[in-house]
Amino acid sequence: ELTRGGQFTRSVVQELKSLKSSYAHKLYWLLSEYRFRGERTFTYDDLRYRLGMNENEYADRFNNFKARIIDKVQLELAKTDLAFTYQVLRTGKKATGIVFRYSARPIPLDITPSATKTVLDADLLPAELVEQLRAIGISQDSVTELTRDVCETKRYPVEYIWYVLNKSRQNTKTKIKSLGGWVFKLVRNRSLLDEYERSLKPTTAATGQPRSAAPARKAAPTQSEVAAREGWRQCIALLEKMLGSQSIATWFKPVQPLAFQNGVLELAVPDQRIYDHIESAYVEELKEVLKQIFGPGVKLEYSVTLALVRRVTE
């Protein structure tokens, strides 16, 4: 991308490389989702949740949170394209929220050979994969290690990372404390590599010969399935304009429409984490587009793994 002065701007990957703390990485992405609005407001509890803190962490210690988290992150982001100022919202004397204000200014890129090589090396993994790895809490340093494994030492193919990521999100048996840590460990230890490679091989019959491919017989989609798919496609298009492509790729693309009938839209969500985040972060935007596409009386039903969670949007 070119600035008006004709210089290249830094890529998002290059911006993230300058950040050290996980909180700086997370807040950068949160502000980046509203990059061109120049302002984003969070309640105090919502911001702590989005930064990955537990329910009680800094719950009644806003001054500590401000000094140890926000002020330090502000110094880190001051060197990026999302330098910000902030205003504390209060109800009486109690801090209840924060308004972040920023201007997404382009930063000229150092285009010396060594700097250009750094950007290229950091960008070898697909951008969408990097976004999803960062979204589940894998640090930039860890992403760099995975990049080195794939592109330099060839320890495993990039498709293997996708395999582990999707497999971990579908997990319903193992209690995972940190999805990012779990995925990183499985990938680097190559714990599922044999399983991944077996999944690529054709199924063999008892004779040891590959089974001949039988004509696929797939039932034609029902009217309710077609209505759900087409309506959800339109919803995604509207949400992308409101939230940006990064949020859509991370939180909404994994969601699959199942059916729309009797005023109820059924959606399949691959894990509880995605359901929780959509409901806490994007529920108002989702309500708005559902009303536009499916009508004001639409109700929404999520299927999260084996558990059915119902939410009515009115």
Give structural attributes.
314 residues, alpha+beta, Arc Repressor Mutant, subunit A, GMP Synthetase, Chain A, domain 3, 3 domains, four-stranded mixed sheet, three-stranded antiparallel sheet, 7 strands, globular, disordered N terminus
List the helices and strands and how they pair.
Elements: H1 12-17, H2 22-32, E1 39-43, H3 44-50, H4 62-77, E2 84-91, E3 94-102, H5 113-122, H6 127-135, H7 140-151, H8 158-169, H9 179-188, H10 193-199, H11 223-243, H12 245-252, E4 256-261, E5 264-269, H13 272-281, H14 283-294, E6 299-304, E7 307-311
What does this molecule look like?
This protein is of the alpha+beta class and 314 residues long. The protein folds into 3 domains: 12-102, Winged helix-like DNA-binding domain superfamily/Winged helix DNA-binding domain (Arc Repressor Mutant, subunit A, Orthogonal Bundle); 124-196; 223-311, DnaA, N-terminal domain (GMP Synthetase, Chain A, domain 3), CATH 3.30.300.180. Helix content is 48%, strand content 14%. The protein has 14 helices and 7 strands. The strands form 2 sheets. It has a 4-stranded mixed beta sheet. A hairpin with a 2-residue loop joins strand 2 and strand 3. The radius of gyration is 22 Å and the shape is globular. It starts with 11 loop residues before the first helix and ends with a strand. The model is unreliable at 1-10, 106-123 and 305-314 (pLDDT under 50).
Order of helices and strands: HHEHHEEHHHHHHHHEEHHEE
Separate helix tally: 14
Distance between the termini: 42 Å
Mean pLDDT: 77
| Backbone shape | globular
Whole-number count of domains: 3
Radius of gyration: 22 Å
Low-confidence stretches: 1-10, 106-123, 305-314
Strand content: 5-15%
Give a quick account of the main beta sheet: strands, pairing sense, barrel closure. 4 strands, mixed
